[in-house]
Specification:
Distance between the termini: 23 Å
Number of helices: 19
Shape: globular
CATH class of the largest domain: Alpha Beta
Structural class: alpha/beta
Number of domains: 4
Strand order of the largest sheet: 9-15-14-13-12-10-11
Largest sheet: 7 strands, mixed
CATH topology of the largest domain: Aspartate Aminotransferase, domain 2
CATH superfamily of the largest domain: Type I PLP-dependent aspartate aminotransferase-like (Major domain)
CATH architecture of the largest domain: 3-Layer(aba) Sandwich
Number of strands: 21
Helix content: 25-40%
Length: 542
Amino acid sequence: MEETTGKKEVVVTSMKAEYIEHSIEVTHFAASGMATQGLNMPVLEEEGDVPTEMTVSVEEQDALDGSMAVTELKHSIEEKKRRRQRVYSQKFRREWLNLQDFQGWLSEGSGPDRAYCTACNKELLAGKSELLKHANGKKHKKRIAEGRENVTVATELSSVLDESGMPHVLRIVDMRSDTVTQPSRAMKEAMIDAPVGDDVFSEDPSVKALEGKVARLLEKEAALLVPSGTMANLICVLTHCWGRGSEVIVGDQSHLHLWAQGGIAQVGSIHHRSIKNLPDGTFSLQELRSLVRGDDPHWPVTTLICVENAHNMMGGKALPLQWMDDLGTLCNDLNLPLHMDGARLINASVALGTVPSCLVQSCDSVSFCLNKGLGAPMGSVIVGTKEFIARALRVRKVLGGGLHQAGMFAAAGMYALDHIAPRLTLDHTNARAIAQSVSEEHSSAITVDLKGVQTNVVLLHCDNIRVNAKKLCQRLASVTDAESEELGEQIVVMMLPITETTARLMVHCDIKKDDIKAVIKKLKYIIQEYDNMMYLEYKISV
């Protein structure tokens, strides 16, 4: 018996995309999914054509008795994902980066089913056929050719063309950290002109000048230049914990505890015990007293207390002066030295409106960074007593931190203290402006603790339903055609996911006023995009 097929009717309701820029993508995979069932759906080419409710006419007659059969199907979010995977069977593969057709322009996109063309500044479907089609396109080949002719491109702004051939400006604002800064021309000139000597023999005049300047700034007896902040903290802990079986108490969210690879245990065989950091970067002094070990041969010996100021993971907060005084008093009572990781100490002093020495008067040692927010290419300075620095010099030597003609880096540090440090207030103001703009959106997807923004650090908190920190950073680093059309420029903002739900941005001396305006414009657009996020659900009657 021949099978007769009449007209089919399908009703699609509550069609809602994950977020606006992917509406067309969702429609396309829905159309492809229904095509496998013998159904038809119009292809939507423009974002504005995507409806929130759609009716497609389909009828089917039973071949045996001629009756019309009606079946109701519900498609959940999981079903949506399965359909997408069936349609996009070829997801991005890292080995494709090595293929000759894709070399020089292909990179991973915002998801496993997306790729990214760096030449065209455009996200693509990750299927190999789609990528080959794009690679053979006239516009792509032209941009590749232009890129080879003009190898040198401005680091801040580069001219590109969108799909319609209209010129746009690609602005890249790197706010992952305040360590991404580039030495200014004036700083480089200071480095070139610096008198140098062999610092391992203590003969470099520029190094001596920097060490003396920092020691006076923090009102300590002596100072020592070392290559990095991680090494500076490690040297200080090893110097304090000279004997075996030592224990250090550190905040559970401190840089020394989370981001130093456990160096004090790995290199120094020193046990570290964590204490819970409070939202302002402090910790309970009562709890600290209870953690200090007594005289028992089964236990390590509590030897050192460490704090961080300003506190990175707590949003760059400056430790309150009264709390620091109380901590110093407690450490004196317990006969324990106090070390401060002062990577962003100048930021903390600016936020509190006081000189840096007031923040460290209770500390026996301080590590002070020159390349975090101050624009120097490298270097940290350790300060303490003359006896402490003499011992720290021995530790620096065994860790390989002794530099010979280090005067060039010392000169960069001197320039940073003289010219960049007085302008940190501007960084704080700009960070506050970004946080204020996010707060004013009253978003439920992306939020900020406006009161907690004290220095150059802003933490953006994600709801982890519509977006997590990693996806937010990926989205901020990408540009869609609709976005560039609405904003009038192509803006790439680079931020850092520091937890699953928290993304961090840092303002620094290389960020200009126009960059702040661009970041705010981009953030507002993305926040509205996520706030408008809706879920996709189908109801099909056959």
